[in-house]
Every structure is written in structure tokens, then in C-alpha cells.
Amino acid sequence: DHPEVKEEILRKDDRLLTLLKDVYVESRDPPVQVKDGGGEHLPCKQEEKRLTKLGHLGALDVKKVSKGKISIVEALTLLNNHKLHPQIWTAEKIAAEYSLELKDVNSLLEFFIPFTVQEFPKETKKAIKS
């Protein structure tokens, strides 16, 4: 907004221009040296991650897991869902929902069965004397 500042910016200084013409700069990159590490330090393929379905633990829940894996909370949830509603929570649906392989889900459902805690009513009968 100040015309005198704009004028000062646009004005050329002949003395500085002649000094700049005398300056010569040469720049070269150093030669590239290839270290033979045998491929030991190649960047590894980054794993695909997915957001987890959070449980009731809030801040303690795992937020991201690699595809093909599940968190403890998710494992317990899917096992319980399958136990309560096996027609709805089929192995195929679980595999799609949690990005798992079908054979892994089938193994999980076969070998990991959540147990049920049952409380039996207290008996009011006296103990039988031997």
C-alpha cells in the first residue's frame, strides 16, 4: 500500500548488478558410491493395516492391526457373536468383516470355543451324612 516501498523494490542498483556479474559459481554433485550390502537394508514392504472394532476398554484397546490379524477384543467378540447367532455370523461373514482368511476363521471357530459361566443355585438341603 506504500508507493515509496514498491518503488524501492522495483529500482535496480547498477553497482550491485555489476558486482553480481563478476560472481561465478560452479556446483557439482559428488560421485555416487554404491555400497554393496547384499540387499540387507532394503526397505521392507509396509504392512496393510486396518482399524479395529473397538471394545469397551477405550484407551486400552488396540486401534490398528495388520490385515489378516485380529485383536483380543475382536476375537472374543466374534467368537461370542458366532456362538449366539451362528446363522448370522458365519465363517464367511466373519472373514469378510475382519479381513481374515476363511481357513483361519474356520480353525478359530473350531478350536477356540468361549466357555459359559453358569451359577448353580445354592441348595438349601443339609449335607448327607455318610
TrEMBL record:
Lineage top rank: taxon: Eukaryota
Example GO biological process: mitochondrial respiratory chain complex I assembly
Pfam families: UPF0240 (PF06784)
InterPro entries named among the record's database cross-references: NDUFAF4
Gene Ontology CC entries for this record: mitochondrion
Quaternary state and interactors: Binds calmodulin. Interacts with NDUFAF3.
Family under the similarity heading: Belongs to the NDUFAF4 family.
Protein name, per record: NADH dehydrogenase [ubiquinone] 1 alpha subcomplex assembly factor 4
